[in-house]
Write a structure and sequence with these properties.
The protein contains 14 helices and 9 strands. The termini are far apart. Helix 9 crosses helix 11. It is globular. The protein has 2 domains: 154 residues, Endonuclease III, domain 1 (Orthogonal Bundle), CATH 1.10.340; 124 residues, Nucleoside Triphosphate Pyrophosphohydrolase (Alpha-Beta Complex), CATH 3.90.79.10. Strands 1, 5, 6, 7 and 8 form a 5-stranded mixed β-sheet that branches. Strands 2-9 form a two-stranded antiparallel ribbon. The chain has 349 residues and is an alpha+beta fold.
Length: 349
């Protein structure tokens, strides 16, 4: 029995019961695929359900504010996905009258839609014969064919795409692509794959050559940058605080945070900046400053680790930018800030 038939048979008998598998609606499929990029299904599922409830159609998503979209996305990470999702929803709703493109080429022209997402939507929704290659597929193919070319290298992207194309069931690309991704997620796992019960164990070259643990070959990780954040958590006699929105193309674009002073190294109460410096940064005179956490909170991102201190700053009054503390929960914030709010009970002040 050929590879595709074995795979599809495995998929039909082992696939998970997921809501986006009960529809071919491109809005639902596109939403799920964007959310599941660099995200486990277990983590992404609650977000998917929340988005579908809040935005049942692409028009609902398009008409929402960016702050609402980011708030619902809060905690899922890689926030550029959410911003691109919102921009694409507006384009599809207002320029294409709510109708998604029905082929790979036009789907790929949408903002935030790359080769993987375009292939997934085209094959699942329109049964277009285009292969899907994600992390799970890289792992299955590298092991099955014993490929040592590093994944995500220029050569690797071309090689694995070609292998996926050669295996693709051209008559049933939807189930084949979903099956290949699901097989990698559930069976050919990164650690402790189920090789003994694998339907391909007689033809898998990595198993034959005892190289399962060595594949896939990944590029070397870039050096992690260390950054040192000092958040000024203001509270006034009016029960107000200060938040600011992150701008530019750095991390957390569009999210809100407390006024931030970034230093070259971690600082203590004895060496922290003067109250005059706080006033220079915020325009607000601080009555007193207290360090909330002696030990910095370390927030790890893919390419940087953020060492964070929170400084509680009392002030008699805040400027016109002050907002009621109880309204902080309405703003989309990084997980780092959300964890502080929950731990400190700041929102309940």
């Amino acid at each position: 029995m050929e590879f595709s038939k074995i795979l599809i048979n495995w998929y039909l008998n082992n696939r998970r019961d997921l809501p986006w598998r009960k529809t071919a609606d491109p809005y639902h499929i596109w939403l799920s695929e964007v959310m599941l990029q660099q995200t486990r299904v277990e983590q992404g599922l609650p977000y998917y359900l929340s988005f579908i409830e809040a935005f049942p159609t692409v028009f609902d998503l398009a008409e929402a504010s960016q702050e609402k979209v980011l708030k619902l996305w809060q905690g899922l990470g890689y926030y550029s996905r959410a911003r691109n999702l919102h921009e694409t929803a507006k384009y599809v709703a207002f320029e294409l009258n709510g109708v998604f493109p029905n082929n790979y080429k036009e789907l790929k022209s949408l903002k935030g839609v790359g080769d993987y997402t375009a292939s997934a939507v085209a094959s699942i929704c329109y049964n277009e014969a285009v292969p899907v290659v994600d992390g799970n597929v890289y792992r299955v193919l590298s092991r099955y064919f014993d490929v040592e070319t590093p994944i995500n290298s220029t050569a690797g992207i071309k090689e694995f795409k070609l292998l996926a194309w050669e295996l693709l069931d051209k008559e049933n690309p939807s189930k084949f692509n979903q099956g290949l991704m699901e097989f990698g997620a559930l069976h050919c796992k990164p650690r402790n794959p189920h090789c003994e019960s694998c339907p391909f164990n007689e033809t898998c070259l990595a198993l034959k050559h005892d190289k399962i643990k060595e594949l896939p070959v990944k590029p070397k990780k870039p050096k992690v940058k260390k950054r040192y954040f000092n958040y000024l958590v203001f509270s006034s006699e009016e029960n107000k605080t200060l938040l600011q929105q992150r701008k530019g193309k750095g991390i957390w674009e569009g999210l809100f945070e407390f006024p931030l002073i970034e230093t070259l190294e971690s600082v203590t109460s004895e060496t922290f900046i003067s109250e005059e410096k706080i006033q220079d940064e915020t325009g607000v005179l601080a009555a007193n400053v207290v360090l909330y956490n002696e030990k910095p909170v370390i927030h790890k991102l893919s390419h940087q680790h953020i060492y964070t201190h929170f400084w509680l700053v009392n002030s008699e009054a805040l400027n016109e930018k002050g907002i009621p503390i109880e309204k902080v929960k309405n703003y989309p914030v990084p997980v780092l800030i959300q964890n502080f709010l929950e731990e400190s009970g700041f929102e309940d002040y």
